[in-house]
Structure formats: C-alpha cells, structure tokens
Specification:
Radius of gyration: 42 Å
Strand content: 15-25%
Helix content: 40-55%
Distance between the termini: 101 Å
Strand order of the largest sheet: 1-2-3-4-5-6-7-8
Shape: flat
Mean pLDDT: 84
C-alpha cells in the first residue's frame, strides 16, 4: 500500500502520464487505419497507413502505396510498395511524425519511402501534412478513416481526374452550383490571383520558374479565398466548370494574355493530369483544409495554455509544425501562427521563470546562497545571444527551397516534464528584457550579501603571512575570491577589498623579492621557473611594481637560458654524434704527416654525414607538406609524390646511426688523409639505407680540416 501511495505521489508531483491517462486514450485518435492520397509526380498515389501505439506516444505501423486508379496502373506499371514506419505522437497538439523503415514490398520502379510530418484535424477526423523531401513538386498528403475516405478524398480526386464533358447529375452530399450559368468574370479571376503578389511582394513573376511559382500559388485555392471569387470551393467544381474558367483565362486582350504574369495558373483548370493539374491542386486543397482547421484549433488552444508538465512539449510541437506540416501556408498565416505561439509561450514562461527565481532568492543565504544566485543569473546571461525570441519571417521562397530536416519528431512530453524547474527550457519564449529583469532581481539579492561577506574576506587578508609565503597565499586567495565575486567587482564593497589587496601587495613584494629571486636562480628547468612565477605572481599590478618587475625579468632570463640548454641537449641527443661520445680518442696511428683519426674522430665524421642527410630530408618534408600543386614544378611534384607516398602521407623520412667501430687506418697513397676500415650499423625510416654504412666491413678516406675530420667516400 505504501509503495502504491508513493508511486501516486510521484506521478502527481512530476506530471507523468500512464497508460490509463487521457493522453493514452487520445492515441486512439491516430492509431488504426487511414486511407488517402499524395502526388508522386506524375501519378496520383493512394496511401494507406495502419498505425499502432503501446505507450500513447511512440508509433509503429505499415505504410502502403499504389496508383489511385486503374488507368494509371496500366500506363505506369505496377508502382506499389509497403514499408514499416515508426514515429511519435504529441497528443495535446495533435502533431505526429513518421520515419520510414525497412521495405516489406519494394516497388518495381525506383522509389524511396519518405518521412512524414503531420497533424490530426479533430474537426474532419483527417490526417494531413507534408513529406520532408525538398524535391517533391507537391509536398502534401491527406488521409481519412476508411469509412469516410471515399466521400471526403477519393471522390473529389476522381472528379479532378475527369476531363470536361456534359454536366453530370448531382451527387448526394456534393452539391454542384453553376457558375452563374456561364464563364466567370475575368476581372474577378484576376482579383483572385492578386493575393499572390500581396503575400510574395518581392517575387518577380516574370523571372521565376513555373515550378516555384506553382509551389507558392497553391494557397490561392484555399476554400474561403477561392469561393469568394468563384462561388464554391475548388474541389466542388465539375470538369465543365473548370473548362469555363480555363477559357476565360486564355482569352487574349490587345494581343496579350488576359491573365498576364498569372497565366501559369491556367494549368489548375486544364489537363487533369500532371504537375499543377486539377488532381494535383485538389490534393493540396484537401490537405490545406485539414491543416487550416488544425491551425485554427491550435490558436484557440494556445489562448488557454498554462504551465504544466506537458506544456513544453506542446509548445515545441507547435513551433516544429511551423517549419514542417504547415510551412507551406501563406506567409501571413505563418506569421500570425508564430506570433500567437510566441505570445502563449511568454504568457506561460514568464511566470515560470519568475517562480524559479523566487525559489532561489527565498532560499539563499551567505556565501552558498550568493553562489546559487550568481549561477542562476549567469544562466540568463549565457543564452542571451541565441535565445531571443524573433517572430518567424514570412516565407518568400517556394517549398522546394526548404532545407531537409534531420528530424521532425514531436518532443516527448516525458523529456520536458523534468525541465519545469530549470530556466533554459523557457528562455526561447521570453524577451531579453524579461530575462534582464529577472537577472537584476537575482543580482540585487546577491549584492545584499556583499557587505557581510567582504568583512570576512578582509579578515582573511590579515592572515596571509609575510614575504614569499604571503605572496603565494595571496595568489591562492585572489583566485578563490575572483571565482566567487568576479561578477560583482564593480560594486563598492568588492572594489574596496580589491584596493586593500593592492595596498598590501606592495609590502609583500618588497619583503619576498629576495627569496623569490633565489628560488628562480636555483631552478633547474624552464618549467620550474614558470611554476615559481605562477605560484607567487599574477595579481593586477604585480608586473608594474618595481619588485614584481625585477622578479619577472630574472625569471624570463633564467627560463631563456634553461630553455636554450635543454634545446641544445635535445639536439645533441637527436644527432648521430651521441653514438660517438663513448668512443676512444687515443687510438690514433702515427704517420709521416701527423697522426691519423681516432675512433671518435671517425665516428664524428660519419655522424656529420648522417646529420646532413636528416636535415635535407626534414627540409624536403616541410616543403612537401606545404607546396601548392598548382604552382609547383613537375620535379617538385614528383619528388613529393615519391617522398610522401612511400610514408603513408606523413612525408617523414630519417636515417639513424646505431653504432660505429674503427678497425684500422693507413696513410693514403697519392692523396691526402688516411684510408680506414670500419664497421657500422644503421636504420632508416621511409628511405633506403645509406651506402657505405651497410653490414660488414666498409672503407673510406678521412681528411683532417680546420673544423675536424671529413669523411670522403671511396668510389
């Protein structure tokens, strides 16, 4: 019993939803079978969805498609397929997204399943939305329950696919109203088309491609706007009525098209097949009808939103819909929708942010409380560059320019319910002024703690000690002080403490300079020098103080000397000369013109050869890594290809002398120097071994110069 009560309390506290909750019950709205259409140009395609859900949010199902009519099947072949889908459903907003999975039946023609972003229109009990594919000429789909799909979707599509002919008898439930018995008023037709210019004023009708124009013009067929000029909605027009409109639009006046730049609209009243045909337009009309129903209901729901566990998910779903499901509506409609979402978000977010700040302010005390207030205020600062709420700019480009999204899945409510106590989730719904006001409240509370806290800091200053120890303790104290009080260093209380530190620092530098100079002078590495300086200096004004400047000057010089010595030692260790250090110098043979080379003399001459080769290889590697293949000579290009290609692209090559042993030397006959036998061992990386240094006995002539012995290879 106790466990059950705890579980119920947890659910109540965090707003979690269970399988018996309304959200799960609402999933029945979207689960089950759906039948509808979309346009896979040039084919009107029947779409079937069968959806299930185990938890009320995640969706699984199967999607199937095939031509909507037998005539299309015979003309285009067997274009049909089935594939799995998965997705998410956000019940409060009635938005969903479906991602295609594996094929169950792959079509004979080339095809790929598409991601879907859509909404549930609770008025008509239809699903409508768009495919997330920028290449589609018509992005819309619309579906209804099987029992209603024939009348609400398939009959209008069938009629749109018919060509003009004698008027048919009136169908039950689909009343036909004649267009005043004749052709429509051409002025009204022009007035109907003019809304395009008011929605897209910067679009040049004469310099924009037809496919982009038709993509933007689908909204002209919206029910209310269309019926105002034609007396009925587009999907209730018969083929004969469309033919009358077409004839009126194709009239020529003074040798020009009657519709002027809007002549491209005539396609919607002509051939029932193809792009922007009556069938194509009818799909858009049916889908937009459901989308606008949903949009209107969403605007009403936005007016009543309040802070709750699921409100963030719902707001996120509405924002996502602006760039997916309803992104192809009129720009003015999108701007209105975005503004209302922003207003609702601010109405909910601002009290939530103020409540969050109130909780921190009320519980804050002392240094810990100041740290909490500072962290909270800092959160508001960090996001101000990216979270300013900006109204959505009206779309001026057709849907074909919309970027492909990574995902259109609605936000899971359980992922947002835990963020109600955190401010980041609300930032995008409030203005910078809102955030600044809350930040100021947090800062005002924090600053009220400063007088008491600064008194404690002054007492710490008095206990820092003297000399070098005081300098070291001062650096530690200053780092901790600034990590806590840096945001408040412009306040009087903090500034007075920093001034006290500056006054004390002069005394400490004078007292500790001698000891620090001694430590610097005895340091054995440049790193040790840096550690001494960083541990004792670094406060503002240290470098300008005479004693501080003297210490830093001595430290820089000591680090330079030690660094140069270390570099020389590293170069020596890297050089082949390191092999020679242990060889004897007293094994020279006596000759007529002086003594011959010792083992060490010969080794150093050999090492010079190795160092020269390595230096040349390093120079070549640097050139190959930076050379411009567009301007390099063919010789350089070929050299670098050979050099870098053989090293896996690193361009690194080297030779290394491993050992050297003198065998014997004799004076050269007929030439200067000594001819010596020796043995050596070497390795190479990325390059063949050097000649005259292979395994076994080698011979070379050695000549003494002013700089030492030179090795001359015998050829």
């Amino acid at each position: 019993m106790r466990r059950r009560l705890l579980a119920l309390a947890f659910i109540a506290a965090f707003g979690l939803e269970v399988l018996g909750s309304p959200a799960f019950a609402q999933t029945n709205e979207i689960t089950g079978s759906w039948r509808g259409v979309y346009l896979a140009y040039p084919q009107v395609t029947r779409l079937e969805l069968d959806i299930s859900s185990k938890d009320g949010r995640s969706l699984d199902g199967i999607a199937a498609f095939q031509p909507v009519s037998d005539s299309q099947r015979s003309a285009l072949g067997q274009f049909r397929g089935r594939f799995r889908v998965t997705g998410m459903y956000e019940s409060s907003s009635g938005t969903f997204a479906l991602v295609p999975g594996e094929w169950l039946e792959r079509p004979a023609r080339l095809a790929r399943p598409l991601r879907m972003s859509g909404v549930l229109d609770r008025r008509s009990h239809q699903l409508a939305g768009t495919f997330d594919d920028v290449s589609l000429s018509n992005p819309y789909f619309v579906l209804a329950r099987p029992s209603a799909a024939d009348q609400s979707i398939f009959e209008p599509i069938e009629e749109a696919l018919e060509r003009a002919g004698p008027e048919r008898s009136v169908k039950l439930g689909r009343l036909k109203i004649p267009l005043n018995g004749g052709a429509p008023d051409l002025d009204k037709v022009r007035d109907w088309a003019e809304r395009f210019a008011s929605e897209f004023p910067e679009v040049d009708l004469r310099r924009t491609t037809v496919d982009r124009l038709t993509a933007m013009a689908r909204n002209l067929f919206e029910d209310q706007h269309f019926s105002r000029y034609f007396g009925k909605t587009y999907d209730r027009m018969s083929p004969a009525e469309r033919e009358k409109v077409l004839k009126a639009m194709r009239e020529r006046q003074n040798g020009r098209d009657a519709m002027g730049p809007y002549a491209f609209l005539s396609s919607a009243f002509s051939d029932p097949h193809g792009q922007f045909s009556p069938a194509d337009v009818t799909i858009g009309v049916l889908a937009q009808r459901a989308l606008r129903n949903w949009s209107g209901d969403a605007l009403g729901r936005l007016d009543g939103l309040s802070a709750s566990a699921g409100v963030l998910g719902e707001l996120a779903a509405y924002k996502a819909a602006q760039t997916s499901s309803i992104s192809h509506l009129w720009p003015s409609e999108l701007q209105t929708f975005a503004a209302r979402v922003g207003q609702a978000g601010r109405r909910v977010a601002l009290p939530a942010l103020n409540a969050w700040a109130d909780g921190i302010i009320q519980g804050a005390s002392g240094r810990t409380g100041l740290a909490a207030l500072t962290a909270a205020a800092q959160k508001l600062v960090v996001v101000t560059t990216t979270s300013e709420r900006v109204p959505v700019r009206p779309r001026t480009l057709p849907p074909t320019t919309r970027p492909q999204p990574e995902s259109r899945l609605p936000v899971r409510q359980e992922q947002t319910s835990a963020t109600l106590s955190e401010p980041e989730a609300w930032f995008e719904y409030v203005t910078m002024e809102d955030r600044a006001a809350i930040q100021q409240r947090l800062r005002d509370k924090a600053e009220s703690f400063l007088p008491t806290l600064m008194a404690a800091e002054r007492r710490q200053l008095d206990s820092l000690g003297t000399g070098a120890a005081a300098l070291r303790a001062g650096v530690t104290w200053y780092g901790a002080f600034m990590s806590t009080y840096q945001p408040y260093q412009s306040t009087t209380a903090v500034r007075e403490v920093l001034e006290a530190v500056s006054g004390r620092r002069k005394t400490d530098l004078a007292a500790g300079a001698k000891e620090l100079l001694s430590q610097v002078a005895s340091a054995q590495t440049a790193g040790a020098v840096d550690a001494i300086v960083s541990a004792h200096l670094g406060l503002p004004g240290d470098a300008q103080d005479p004693n501080g400047a003297r210490i830093e000057t001595a430290a820089r010089e000591r680090a330079r000397v030690l660094g140069a010595a270390a570099a020389a030692a590293e170069a020596e260790a890297k050089s082949a000369r390191s092999v020679c250090n242990s060889l004897p110098e007293g094994d020279r043979e006596a000759g007529m013109n002086g003594d011959g080379p010792s083992s060490r003399d010969m080794c150093l001459a050999v090492a010079a050869r190795f160092d020269m080769v390595n230096e040349n290889l390093e120079t070549q590697a640097r050139e190959c890594k930076t050379f411009d293949k567009r301007t390099a000579s063919p010789f350089t290009a070929m050299t670098c290809i050979a050099l870098c290609g053989g090293t896996g692209g690193s361009c690194e090559m080297s030779v290394r002398l491993l050992s050297f042993k003198k065998i014997a030397c004799g004076e050269a006959v007929g030439e200067a120097g000594w001819v010596c036998d020796y043995q050596s061992a070497m390795t190479s990386r990325g390059t063949p071994p050097l000649p005259d240094f292979g395994p076994g006995l080698n011979k070379a002539r050695f000549v003494k110069s002013a700089d030492g012995w030179l090795m001359i290879t015998r050829r």
